[in-house]
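Quarterly update from the structural biology core.
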Amino acid sequence: MKKFLGIISLCLLTFSCSKKEQPLDNSLLWEISGNGLEEPSYLFGTIHAICDASLDDKVIKALDKTSVVILELDIDDLEPSDDMRNQVKMKNGTTIQDLTTDKEYKALETFVKNELTLPIEEMNTIKPYFIIVLTYTKLFDCPIVSLESELIKLAYEQNEEVLGLETLEEQFKIFDDIPYEAQVTDLLNSVSDTLKRDKKMFNEMLDLYNNENISELHDLLKDYPSEVSDKYLHILVDDRNKKWIPKIKNYAMEQPSFFGVGAGHLPGKNGVINLLRKEGYTVKAVK
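Predicted structure, tokenized:
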């Protein structure tokens, strides 16, 4: 369970996407200015699992110009704890076995044992999404690192505070609001071909991310079959983006801030870039 919680802390939320919009410039880093801001803040699209977490010079320069780092989560919330252990479990005693046929459960049991080297009994009460998160360790041919960890490291070196846009409780609640049945469907689809389809998609995604092409990344993820993304995108992405905007505005007004959120939250009609522009801010790509 300790290993499981550690991986969850690293990879809590994946990319998501919405309907096609006007393509944005190829950039992961965006400057936020205007609308009463005395100094610009910066918005950076992260990826929660990658082989190389080295930061581009322009990102380091943006960090130098800002005085606080704000990620999706306050890092103090990411320490494995009894509270986290309870929140990864499904409500009302629901189990994976309740949500699957005998044949599906047996296939999942075999996968969890062979690929994740974990007993199915340990996974049976876990929200299906977080078992999907565990499979990320099998999609890479390298040790997984996160850009958030590198941002945190640099922030601490500069004696800057690291804050969050939402709480751990808010993030875990998302996967109580999204039906467990939908999550289990995605899990079974991934397990059905031993992650071959997922690995192909992740390689394509990483190529687009490394080229900073967030518009095509957005479209790739939109077209990827997913029960959760197809039906519950508003919970997974849109609603969260809208809740973040007042917080981003307040932080940016108080001091020049560096915001690091999953790159899938940047583009789209309800993406953070467009929502900030609607609020009157100038949001432009940093080349």
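Confidence is low (pLDDT under 50) at residues 5-20.
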